[in-house]
Amino acid sequence: xDNVSTSARSTNEALSQTRTAVDELARMSADLRSAVNQFTx
Length: 41
What we know:
Elements (H helix, E strand, L loop, with lengths): L1 H36 L4
């Protein structure tokens, strides 16, 4: 039971870190899109 609890906790931490990384990538993508849109072709 302890192993399952530890595994579940580790999985939750990994999911939280993944969510944070995805949010950061989305923000970076929006910033990059904004920067690129400043150029006209």
